[in-house]
Amino acid sequence: MKSESSSFRFLAQLCTRITDGTHQTPNYQDQGVIFISAKNIKGGQLDFADRKYITREEHEFLTKSAKPAPGDLLLTKSGSLGDVAVIPELDFEFSIFESLALLKPRRDLVDPHYLYQYIRSPDAARHFHGITTGLAVKHLHLGDLRKLKVFLPPLKHQRELAAQLSAWDTAIQKTEQLIAAKERHYSHELSRRFSEDRTAPRKYRLGEIAYVPQKLPESPKADDVYVLVRLYCKGIEKNERQKKEPTKNGRPIFRRNAGELLVGRQNIHNGGFGIVPKDLDGSLASNAITSLRFHPEKASADYIFFYLSRPSHYKKLERVMGGTGQKEISESQLMTLTIPLPALHTQTAIARYLNALRDEINLLNQSVEAYKAQKRGLMQKLLTGQWRLPVQEEAD
Fold first, then answer.
1. In CATH, which of 3.90.220, 3.10.450, 3.30.450, 3.30.160 is domain 202-341?
2. Which residues form a coiled coil (predicted)?
3. How far is C-alpha 380 from the geometric centre of its chain's CA atoms?
4. Contacts of 112 (CB under 8 A, 6+ apart)
5. How large is the average pLDDT for residues 205-232?
6. Torsions phi, psi of 340, nearest 5?
7. Could you give the count of Cα atoms lying within 13 Å of 132 in the half-sphere of its Cβ?
8. Count of H helices and E strands in the chain?
9. What's the topology of domain 156-201+344-396?
10. d(C-alpha 14, C-alpha 106), whole Å
11. In the prediction, which pLDDT does 101 show?
């Protein structure tokens, strides 16, 4: 059988209907028919956990012209733009708010799962970026959405492409689930390893085991712990969104709004306080970070880093921090913080164990980012016709 040719079609040509949900806020009920909005599309899937309800009568009225059905697509058109999900087989009905667009694909022209992948492609993202409106909250207009050009190979090729890209999605999703499980385990171990029973032999003030170097290093050192002690805007006008200030060694520091500091490639914002990551990539801002050096015969810098990284350590900081609007802590106040320390060999063993857990999580994060990058590259080639997958021709 002769292969059909590929072409580009407008999204409007591939759907029997492109519409959105009601623009009026419904009368919510304690129970009834489920009502969802853009927040219910997460990572390419429908999530009904955070849902509202409307009456059956209102649902029937709202879906009189277009009712969501299995195989239709829902696309976020307000706030978080361009996230899309294919409606699966469900044993219940639901209605949608105006922040969601409803796409009813023509099954004789386009496979819903192929269209799903195409809408998630770099080409579609560029299209959405170019047609969005609004300053605070971004919006997609249906008229502009209908003009999205979709590369349309024959249906059998579409199904094969969708299956291949779906396999990448599965690999990414499983890796992200593994990362989430590892993060939970790490948090549990972080709390357990620093319980008072384990670390109670003696409490030390930071001033007894650490000192502040006279000169702050221009780049991170493995045996330093960097404590973020103050965040504020310096030299930024009200109408200036970002100011670039090179450091002595030429590496840039970007300061944005108060409470946020971009150092190198690390974005650090913990309400004005926090512990700078040990693997900080970039230079240090001397007016915002205190560098602590630890006496090696008394304390392990890695152990102290993990101890201070616990969420509960912020309560200790709050006891000594000063200021009303923009909080800050002086070096002398910082040195009064007390830390219970076990024997040095125990500190080293705990730090080595927690470092191994973090290294494993970091490797998994690198893997999932690599998967996503590879999938984006593959989508760019396959969904624009630059590459073709071998597909067995169907017999006449």
1. 3.90.220
2. 354-381
3. 22
4. 71, 72, 73, 86, 105
5. 62
6. -75, 130
7. 19
8. 12, 21
9. Helix Hairpins (1.10.287)
10. 6
11. 93
